Amino acid sequence: MSRIAKIIPNAMAAFMAVIFLDSLRYKFTDHPKTQVIFGRLNDWAASLGLPGLFAHTGLFSQYVIGSIELLASTLLIVGMIPRLRQLQAAGALAGLLVMTGAVSFHLFTPLSIDPNHDGGGLFAAACANLVFAILLLGVFRRREIADFAGRVARVFAPA
Question: Can you tell me the distance from the alpha carbon of 87 to that of 80, in angstroms, rounded to the nearest whole number?
Answer without folding.
Answer: 9
